Amino acid sequence: MNDPAPGPAFRNPALPVAERVADLLARLTLEERIGLLHQYQAPVERLGLRAFRTGTEALHGLAWHGPATVFPQAVGLASTWNPDLVREVGEATADEVLAFHHKDPAGVGRNVWAPVVNPLRDPRWGRNEEGYSEDPWLTGVMGTAYARGLRGDHDVLKTAPTLKHFLAYNNETDRCVSSSSVPPRVLHEYELRAFRRPLESGAAVAVMPSYNLVNGRPAHLSPLIGGLLRTWADGDLLVVSDAYAPGNLTRLQGYHRDLPEAYAHAIRAGLDSFTQDDDDPSATLGHIREALRRGLLDEADVEAAARHVLSIRIRLGDLDPATPYDDVTQEVVNSPEHQALAREAARQSITLLKNDGILPLRAPKTVAVVGPLADALFEDWYSGTLPYQVTALAGLSERCATVYCEGVDRVALRVEGGYLAAGSDPQGGPLWVGPERSGFDVFDWGGGAFAFRAAANGRHVSVAADGVLVNDQPGPSGWEVRQTFRMEERPRGVVLRNISTGHYVAVEGGVVGTVEDPEAAAVLVVELMESGAERAARAAAQADVAVVVAGDHPLVNGRETEDRSDLALPARQEALVRAVHAANPATVLVVSSGYPFAVTWADEHLPAVLWSAHGGQEYGRALAAVLFGDEDPGGRLTQTWYRSAAELPDLFDYDVIASDATYLYYRGRPLYPFGHGLSYTRFAYADLELSADVLAPGGTLTARVTVTNTGDREGDEVVQFYTHQQRSRVKQPVRQLRGFRKVRLAPGESRTVSVQVPAADLAFWDVTRGRFVVEEAAHKLMVGRSSRDIALAARFTVAGERIPPRDLSARPLDAADHDEYDGVVLCDAAPEAGDAVRAAGAGAWVSFRDADFGRPGAGPSACALAVSSTEGGVVTLRVDDPLCGDVIGAVTVPPTAARHDLVEVVTPLAGSPGVRDLYVVFESEGVTVSTLGFRP
């Protein structure tokens, strides 16, 4: 038997984590425990604890710390449909985090803020590029794979992955003050599902709440943190705030009167680490001390949060004499192995959306490479610094002769007294007004956002801190992008409004600067010096094939803080595609973007369309390999590509079930469906077999199918399995992904692939009893190339349970547990916990189907409603129909001091025996109903 290691227990790696944490906590004073609750944790020198910080960005490679390997964006990694590859990318990223940490322990921490597992409900979301899929199960699979790579396989964590952003966060517009109204089914079946798998598997060890409110309550105060997330976690879960979100609890959100009160509530709800005031924890810790002084917190609350923090530090080996990763050096950063991995990830992410046979390219002599993204690679807000760039032009130029045209217009901007002019100094300088025309290249990034590059020095025009226009930037960049403008029409020309500052370009005293007053703006006449589309058409006409590379700039029109308003390709890019195609019908469109575009014209007229997310440093070589047929296009879409934004619900409508959103419920004809992606070869499906015709509630169904490459070349296929429940008490998805297998087959090769579908995965949330249920029903299993390209189908039955009528005598009805609704929003019944329903207008209603009122004379005689309204109002109870159904009761809601001041009002019930549909009708706007209790 080995002797115990000398020294305190918390220093002994041989002891269980919980025992080490308990020992360390017992040695810490209250003040030292408080010091652990900020992003920048103070050292405890008497115990040898070093300073520690949370939060290193590592979404698709290490970010913000200098050159490091840049992999494809997260949505691109997911489009590989290869969890093993995604895990490898996570491992490589973790190695580079470690290398930077060893060089700068204080600046680069090992708690990484990745992956993002918000399902991509709406493609207009500005942060679409950060997520994986509109399907929550696939999001969970990919998030788990990336997090598993980040954490490593050793008991000692390589890094500590943090899931972002909990919960129901898909809008940048008003993100800190908007509330996502999420019904129980959407909450449990859609939003929460993406978080559960990475936590239960132990791949992720931390969570970051989101900026928004959910059902009226700030996400940072969600009772689900303690009530669900911690129950799913494999060990202690660290909960870190988003940057400056704690301060929003009083300022923007006004949820609490002051910060001590707000911070106390956050800690009680489960927040362990405050990301507030950058590296200065003094104010935050002062508010926590004040909360303790007032009795809003007790020492046990602080101890619980400190325990979660210390558990992660110990699991990282932060208190050990050595870790398995101490020998990781800077040699891993941008190593040849990581470069090859970046290239393979980019290759497998490239998705062939349409191909009339032009691809793969057949030894063209000359390729015209055209477009604003043809010779550019962009970094997004959470990407690393590119150590080198292989653009589309560079990659194609390695393979054949190319002609290049950026395809942007060059204009002169005439103003009273002359023209806006820019100097040729490579470092740039202030613009001025001169007599000669000075060229500016115009970049259209969509959404009315334009950037101007001075032809004199090739630098973009930006608004300096003093408001002066200067040509000194390589392009749109930084958190506050000051290089983009809107062109607003005026009778005699246009005015330019800087998007970041909101100020207008003006000329005063010979200085070209900005002003707030739109009336003082300089009216500009835009004179076309050279048409980019015409120049590109001439280049295309000289080539055998034209490749147009179009798409988005990740920092413009669709980024953190900015949603898109539509799905259209930027107008000038659309015109470029059409002009090139008119000059050369052999035109291939390559879309490089972090989100879908409605490229309907291109799909109708061009012979081939491809898409990839921004593909990182090796993008160009990966693209060339696919275009020339060295490799099969390996990508498949992980979200629906719609034909128009008109097919989407409101951006703020989070009820994917009621609004028929995502491939799960959408019934229209998309441009490209979920799971879509073509190969250069053909595949046949045969012999679909199910392991059982009847599936027991606790059983697992195995589905097998044989896939054969019937083409003449090797290729990749993603075999996708979906199910549909054919009868149900509730609205079911039209189709739902249950599993997939990615296979590479040689010509003529066959392979049998299988997936397992546990009956539990077929469960849905039963609002009548507040739990998941596997319903007795017939199901159809479908297998094919996408959610719309189904090759084979088979039926099976699940021997589940039948949902009985609602038992009104069992417990009060939670108003949030309704079946259908109109004109209501979900809100918080109380600050700490509970949901309620509030009328957004008079005539709103919620329904409770199959409510059992009992036998005549034996049913409930009265209903007590918990209600509030600052203005007062009336609520009516009807059966069978919200407008003309029989009225069985009505209550007058008295004015209450605040929305959380619920009062009980009681109405006698008129005779309504049997099982009926109950409607709660809000005759007045602003009335809130929390519960309905039925009395004998």
Main traits of this protein?
Trefoil (Acidic Fibroblast Growth Factor, subunit A), alpha+beta, Rossmann fold, TIM Barrel, 936 residues, 19 helices, single chain, 5 domains
Protein topology:
Blueprint: H1 17-27, H2 30-34, E1 40-41, E2 52-57, H3 74-78, H4 83-103, E3 111-113, H5 136-151, E4 160-166, E5 179-180, H6 184-191, H7 193-200, E6 206-209, E7 213-214, E8 217-218, H8 224-232, E9 238-239, H9 245-248, H10 259-269, H11 282-294, H12 299-315, H13 336-349, E10 351-355, E11 366-370, H14 392-397, E12 401-405, E13 409-415, E14 418-421, E15 432-434, E16 440-444, E17 450-454, E18 460-463, E19 469-473, E20 485-490, E21 493-498, E22 504-508, E23 511-515, E24 525-530, H15 532-541, E25 545-551, H16 571-583, E26 587-592, H17 600-605, E27 608-612, H18 619-627, H19 662-665, E28 683-690, E29 694-695, E30 700-709, E31 715-725, E32 736-745, E33 750-758, E34 764-766, E35 771-773, E36 777-784, E37 790-798, E38 806-807, E39 813-814, E40 820-822, E41 824-828, E42 835-839, E43 844-852, E44 862-868, E45 873-879, E46 886-893, E47 903-908, E48 915-922, E49 928-935
Parallel strand pairs: 2-3, 3-4, 4-6, 5-7, 6-9, 11-12, 11-25, 25-26, 26-27, 29-37, 38-43
Antiparallel strand pairs: 1-2, 7-8, 10-27, 13-14, 13-16, 13-24, 14-15, 16-17, 18-19, 20-21, 22-23, 28-30, 30-33, 31-32, 31-36, 34-35, 36-37, 39-49, 40-43, 41-42, 42-49, 43-48, 44-47, 44-49, 45-46, 45-48
Helix pairs in contact: 1-12, 4-5, 4-13, 5-7, 10-11, 13-18, 15-16
Organism: Microbispora corallina
Pfam families: CBM_6, Fn3-like, Glyco_hydro_3, Glyco_hydro_3_C
Keywords: Hydrolase, Signal
